[in-house]
Amino acid sequence: MAIPVPSWQLFIDGEWREPVHKNRIPIINPATEETIGDIPAATAEDVEIAVEAARKALVRNGGKDWANATGAHRAKYLRAIAAKITEKKSYLAKLEAIDCGKPLEEAAWDIDDVAGCFEYFADLAEAFDSKKKTPVSVPMDTFKCYVLKEPLGVVGLITPWNYPMLMATWKVAPALAAGCTAILKPSELASITCLELAEVCRDVGLPSGVLNILTGFGPEAGVPLVSHPDVDKIAFTGSSATGSKIMTAAASLVKPVTLELGGKSPIVIFEDVDLDKAAEWALFGCFWTNGQICSATSRLIVHESIAEAFLEKLVKWCKNIKISDPLEEGCRLGPIVSSGQYEKVLKFISTAKDEGATILCGGARPQHLKKGFYVEPTIITDVKTSMQIWREEVFGPVLCVKTFTSEEEAIELANDTHYGLGAAVLSQDHERCERLTKAFQAGIVWVNCSQPCFSQAPWGGKKRSGFGRELGEWGLDNYLNVKQVT
C-alpha cells in the first residue's frame, strides 16, 4: 500500500510558509526510483526570515518566554515532543524508510531513539536549573566569583540523510534544552520526517520561532545560514569536505562550530575470539543502515591465523542477508539513498578492483532487484594501505580487509587513517583490549562490540572526523556560553 507523503512548506515562526521563490525539490524513493512527492527549496531570502524569527523568539518578553525561562519550563515542551513522536512512531518509521531506504525495523528503532533523546535532554534541562550558577573558589577573600551558563543564542543546525530525524534530534533537543532558538537545515535527500517534527512542535504548542525548519540545497540554504551574522553557532554533521567549507565560512565571523564528520573506522579482531560472535559484530558494524554510517567499522583488521576461516564465515553470512524493499518484513539491507550515492559506491568498488584488490563477495546490484539503488554487501581483500578503498570513506555496504601478525602491527594499521571517529577491538584478553583502547586515535572505542550508541554518552571524533561532542552533558554544553562573574 502506498504511503501518502504530505506536501509541506517551510516551517518559520511557528507557521507553514511557502518559499519566497516557490521552488520545490522532488522526493525519490530509493527502493523504486519513483518520485513520491516534493519538499520546499529554501533560499537566502527564506534564511533571512527564519533567522529574524529565531532572534525575536530568543528575546521575546525579555527572554522570559524561552532563553531565560527555567529549564523545567523548556523540559515540558521536550517531553511533549517525545510523547507525540512515540504516538506517531509507526507512521514516522514508514516515512523514513521510503525517504532514505532504511529497513523499516531499523527506522522504527531510530524513532524510539528520537523520543528517548528528547526525554533525556528534558531531564538535563530540569537539572540545569540548579547548575547554571556555580561558585568558583578564588584565593582572595575580598572577592567572590561564580560562573553562569547561558544559552549561546540563535544556532544553525545542519544534518545528514542517513538518520534524518535522529541526527536532527541530536542537535535540536540539546539546543532547545539549553535555551537556544534554532534553524534546522536537514539534507535535501531525506527531509520528510524533519518536516513532520515541525508539525509535532506545532501540536505541542512550542513557542513560535523557537525552532524553524528550512529544507533545501546546501549552496542555496546552508551557505546563507552558515554565513549569517545573526546566527551565533553552527553545528554540522556530514562529509569532511563540506565540514571544511563550513569551518572556513564561519571563520570570517569567528563563529563557533561543532563538526561531526566522516570516518574510516577500524575493527581489530584477535585470534582468541568466538568466530560467530565476531562475525556478527563485524557485519553489523559495517552493513547497519545499509552501510551508510559515519562511524561504520569498514576496515576489518583480522589476525592472520584466523583470517581464512573468519572470512569464509563472513561470506556465508553475507549471502543470508535479506536485501529487499525496506518495507518488506525481514529486510536487513535496503537501497543506497540516491542515484548519485549509488554510482559513487559502485565506483569505489571498481577502483578497488582496478588497483589490484579482490572482490571476495558482492560488489554489484543484487540480481533479483531490477530497480532501486541496491548494492550487495561487499567484502574486499588483498587490500594495500595505499589504495583508495583503505583510505577514503565509501558510505555504503563495503568492508575492506587486512591481516596482521602482532598487536603493534594491528595498532599501526588501525591508526593509519586521516579520520578518528570510532574504533573497535574484539578479544577475550581484557588487558589487551585496554591497551588498544588507549592506543586508538579515535573519539569512540567499542570493546567486543561495534556501533552501540546512547544519549547519555559523548559522541564525536578527532583528526578529520571533526571536533566537539554531541550527546550526554557534553551535548548540552555545546549550546551554552560560560560567563565569569566576580
TrEMBL record:
<keyword id="KW-0560">Oxidoreductase</keyword>
<comment type="subunit">
    <text>Forms homodimers.</text>
</comment>
<dbReference type="InterPro" id="IPR015590">
    <property type="entry name" value="Aldehyde_DH_dom"/>
</dbReference>
<dbReference type="InterPro" id="IPR016163">
    <property type="entry name" value="Ald_DH_C"/>
</dbReference>
<dbReference type="Pfam" id="PF00171">
    <property type="entry name" value="Aldedh"/>
</dbReference>
<dbReference type="InterPro" id="IPR016161">
    <property type="entry name" value="Ald_DH/histidinol_DH"/>
</dbReference>
<feature type="domain" description="Aldehyde dehydrogenase">
    <location>
        <begin position="16"/>
        <end position="485"/>
    </location>
</feature>
<dbReference type="InterPro" id="IPR029510">
    <property type="entry name" value="Ald_DH_CS_GLU"/>
</dbReference>
<dbReference type="GO" id="GO:0019145">
    <property type="term" value="F:aminobutyraldehyde dehydrogenase (NAD+) activity"/>
</dbReference>
<dbReference type="GO" id="GO:0110095">
    <property type="term" value="P:cellular detoxification of aldehyde"/>
</dbReference>
<comment type="pathway">
    <text>Amine and polyamine biosynthesis; betaine biosynthesis via choline pathway; betaine from betaine aldehyde: step 1/1.</text>
</comment>
<feature type="active site">
    <location>
        <position position="260"/>
    </location>
</feature>
<keyword id="KW-0520">NAD</keyword>
<dbReference type="InterPro" id="IPR016162">
    <property type="entry name" value="Ald_DH_N"/>
</dbReference>
<dbReference type="InterPro" id="IPR016160">
    <property type="entry name" value="Ald_DH_CS_CYS"/>
</dbReference>
<protein>
    <recommendedName>
        <fullName>Aldehyde dehydrogenase domain-containing protein</fullName>
    </recommendedName>
</protein>
<comment type="similarity">
    <text>Belongs to the aldehyde dehydrogenase family.</text>
</comment>
